[in-house]
Design goal:
The protein is mainly beta and 153 residues long. It is built from one helix and ten strands. Strands 1, 2, 3, 4, 5, 6, 7, 8, 9 and 10 form a ten-stranded mixed beta sheet that branches.
Length: 153
């Protein structure tokens, strides 16, 4: 057994050592966004809404803005209950913990899309641009859903 170990060790040691060195060269996990979709306004001139899930990267950061190519202005909002009434408040930023998750969904945090273009139709895609406190940005496609249509799965 010792003789076999003596023969294998010179081959295995460099492979294991090389693998350990390469792990230091890997890029940290990047921020990801998925399940992005927008609900078109029920009435022209009224705002639409947007939803998505963010997955944090290797370091904590803060989401400071989201924009879209089919709306004049986009704001982050949060729905909540207050005194038995549903209310909504604008949010300026959302912390995204390292490796954590932040979800914008109906009835909770969401985007308000003001001045949505009439050119955006159900089934079309719009581009969401997510901006973080460090100045970094990512972009993801979001499918447009009609006002009375079910949310995408």
């Amino acid at each position: 057994m010792r003789a076999m170990m003596a023969m294998v060790a010179p081959v295995v040691a460099p492979v294991v050592g090389g693998a350990l060195l390469l792990t230091g060269c890997l890029k940290p996990a990047a921020i990801e966004a998925d399940h992005a979709w927008v609900r078109l306004p029920a009435v022209e001139g009224r705002p639409g809404s947007g939803y998505f899930t963010l997955h944090g990267g290797a370091a904590a950061t803060t989401l400071v803005a989201v924009s879209t190519d089919y709306a004049i202005r986009t704001e982050m909002h949060e729905s909540m209950m207050s005194g038995g009434m549903a209310t909504m408040a604008k949010i300026d930023s959302i912390p995204l913990p390292a490796g954590g998750e932040v979800t914008f969904q109906p009835g909770g945090r969401h985007l308000m899309l003001f001045g949505v273009s009439r050119d955006l139709k159900p089934g079309d895609n719009t581009l969401l641009t997510f901006t973080f406190a460090d100045g970094s940005r990512i972009q993801r496609k979001a499918v447009a859903v009609g006002a009375g249509d079910p949310a995408p799965e």
